[in-house]
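Q: Give me the 3D complex with FE2/S2 (inorganic) cluster.
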Amino acid sequence: MTTALPRTIPSLPTRWYVDEAHHQREIEAIWRREWLCIGREADWAAPGDYRLVPIAGQELLVLRGEDGELRAFHNTCRHRGSVLCTQSAGHFAGGRIVCPYHAWTYSLDGQLARTPRRIPCADFDASNYPLYGVALDTWAGFVFINFEPAPAMTLREAFGSEFDLVASWPLATLRTAHSETHTVACNWKLFWENFMECAHCPGVHPELSRAVPLYGKGLLRLDDEPNYQPAPGDLLEASCGEGVETWSTSGKLCLPPLSGIDPAAIATGMRFATFFPSAFVVGHRDYVRSVRLHPLGVDKIEVTIEWYVDPAVPASEVDVKTLTEFGRLVVLQDARACELAQRGQRSTRHEAGVLMPQEYDVALFHRWVQERLA
Ligand code: FES
Ligand SMILES: [Fe+2]
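A: Here is the predicted complex, encoded as C-alpha cells.
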C-alpha cells in the first residue's frame, strides 16, 4: 500500500506584492483595522512627552497627558487641517498643543481650549472640535493603537493567546537596552511569509541553523518531519541545541537569567509571540527582543528591532554589542532574502508562487490576509 503524498498549496497572486492599488486595499482593510504595536510605554517617560508615529499612511501624535495617560491623535488641527507638530519627538511645556498655523490650542487630552483671533460665531462650539482620537491600549509595557473608531476586538481579544505565551517574562518592567530601525525593500507580507517558515533557514541562516538544530533541517517543529514517529519525552517546539543557552554569537547568556520564566521556555531557550500585522516578541532566558514593522509603500517596509533587559542590571554592565549582534544578523539575513523575493515578483510571467506542505503556516497567514480583504 502506498501512502498518499501531501499536496501543494496555492499562494497569493503576485499582483498583491507589486500593485499600488491593491496595497492601498490592504492598508485600509488590515493596517487601519488591526491593533498595531508602536513602541514601549517608557518611550513616553514624562507627562507632556510626545512622539510622531508615522504608520499605515497616517501620522499620529502620541503623547503622555498630564494625568499620566498615553493618548493618540491624528497630527491634524481641526481648524484647517495643518499638522500640529513637525518634530519627531518632544515635550509640550505648559500642557498645551499649539497649532503653528493660526495658534488654535489644545489641551493634552485633545480638547480645543483656545481659538485666538477668532471672530465669535453663533454656531461655533469648541467642544465639537477636539483632536481626532485614535484607540490606544497597552500590554506588558508595549503600546498598541487601532485606527477604528470602535475596534472590532479589544487588544486582549485580538492577541490574548499570544500574550499568554510570554506571560512568564517580566516584560512590563524590562528596560530598552537598544533600538534600531532598518528600511527593507519588500512587501510587508513577504516579511511575514518568511517568518512563518524555516525552509529558508539552512541556506539563509547558517549561524542560527547551528544554534537551533531543527532550523538547520528546515523545520519549525519536530513533528514537521514527514516521517516523524512520536516518542515519549519529545520536545516538539524548536529549541536551542546542546550548550546553547540563548540567541548570542557564543550561545552563552549575555546577562543573568531573568527570573520566573516558564520552565518549558527555559528548555527551548526561546518563545515567540506574534501580533499580526505589526510585531513579534521573542523571549529568551536573559533578554527579550521585539521586531516591529509597518509598510512605507507596496515594496518597502520599516523594521524596528529592540532589545529589553532586566532594569536591575546597570547599563554599564550590559554589553550591547554582544546582546544585539546575533538577533540583528538573523533579521538582516531575513531582510536580504525578502528583498530578493520582492525583486522576483516583478516578472510578468510570475502570476503566483506555490507553497510546499511544510509552508502550512504561510498558508494560514495567507488565509488571515484573505479573510480581511474579503
Ligand atoms: S489650521 Fe490649525 S489653527 Fe488654523
Ligand atoms: Fe529567517
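A quick observation: DSSP finds ten helices and 17 strands in the chain.
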